[in-house]
Amino acid sequence: MTFAGCQLVDVLSLNAVDTVNSSNMESLFENISLEANQFDLHCSPIKEYLKHKTVFITGGFGFLGKLLIEKLLRCDVKKVYLLVRGKKGKSFEERFESLKNESIYTEILKANENIFSKIVLVSGDLQKLELGIANDDQESLINEVEIVFHVAADVNFTQSLREAIETNVRGTREIIHLCRRIIKLNVLIYVSTAFCTPSFEVHEIYETEFDCDFMIDFVENLKPKDYDDFEAISTRIIQPFPNTYAYSKALAEKMIHKHENEFKIAIIRPAIIATAFHEPLPGYTDNVYGVNGVVCGAGLGFLRIFHINNKLKANIVPADYVINMMLAVSWLTVCENTSNYLQFILYSQVNKEKLEEISESKIDSTRKEEIKIFNCSVTNNNPVTLKNVFGLFAIIPPNIITCANFLKYSITFCLH
């Protein structure tokens, strides 16, 4: 399976940087130290960039957030600020204790039992103005943070449009307002969704009928007695998007786009996120939602029939691929015009002839800042169909009685 996030060399060298023309190739190679003894092939420049950085994460207690924290701690960051609120009757301190017991942190705890001392909890709420963060905590973030990962979102597809806008759109606006005040900010990475545009090939912001700020103001001025009337027309408002989640993420991207020239910003658009493929644990997940639930249900024998078009592409990406892309893009957005960046792409099997073939102009370090968008989804090079995915469960010999079948039939008998 080939994913956009896998081909990091192509993403870095072909799509995200101006290269040099053939007349300047020799001077480029002379000016950049390319000797193997001067370039540590075992030390990723991305890891070096993240080392000793202070990071602020929203959504750190979600599936992606947990994996992001684990990877950042392995990169030896200086400090990780986590925006957290109480949820499901648990205080944020209790949620943090549960987080530390996750199996994905076992190895890093063996290496450093005090690793979680790098994590600082910041009480707040994405639905509140100024994120509900206390003044003292705001000052700490403003003075210390260098990288912001905005991962948090209300991912309920059936959520009311009003609440989706309050969380996903206004929450993003509040993140931007905070970032504008952060003194040492390097980059803001916003995690969107591949389904916020009608086409996976679009690497630009999709236009919506209503402006993001207008929708925020409209929702804020709604009276409680008007909530039901607003929801009654919401299906018409969100067209052509399939649900309030996709629509609110498109509005959030518009909000990001409005501030693209104020500081470095990049958008990651993952498709359907599945379990981790390689790291930190193969097959790791903390939920059975979406595709994970379907796979678990089919594998356990509960889900016997699933109505699909088996010719459609299974636009599924492993969670660790998404995390790797997030970290790589944070480095790319900041370091793309440095010699360290050029060393990396030249030592990443991008040969001289390929650079000559695709190059047209010199690197311009003074060009206007533009928002960078990275679609993390299945490519056309080696597509996987739904038949490839769910057909795996059909080849199991039916005459083998498994525990899963026994459990399934037992429960079915009891329910009926």
Automatic annotation (TrEMBL):
Gene3D superfamilies: NAD(P)-binding Rossmann-like Domain. Its EC number is 1.2.1.84. This is Fatty acyl-CoA reductase. Catalyzes the reduction of fatty acyl-CoA to fatty alcohols. The lineage of its organism: Eukaryota, Metazoa, Ecdysozoa, Arthropoda, Hexapoda. InterPro entries: FAR (IPR026055), FAR_NAD-bd (IPR013120), NAD(P)-bd_dom_sf (IPR036291). It comes from the Eukaryota. GO terms for molecular function: alcohol-forming long-chain fatty acyl-CoA reductase activity; alcohol-forming very long-chain fatty acyl-CoA reductase activity. One of its GO terms (cellular component) is peroxisome. It comes from Clunio marinus. Residues 57-326 form the Thioester reductase (TE) domain. SUPFAM superfamilies: NAD(P)-binding Rossmann-fold domains (SSF51735). It catalyses: a long-chain fatty acyl-CoA + 2 NADPH + 2 H(+) = a long-chain primary fatty alcohol + 2 NADP(+) + CoA. Keywords: Lipid biosynthesis, Lipid metabolism, NADP, Oxidoreductase. Signal peptide: none annotated.
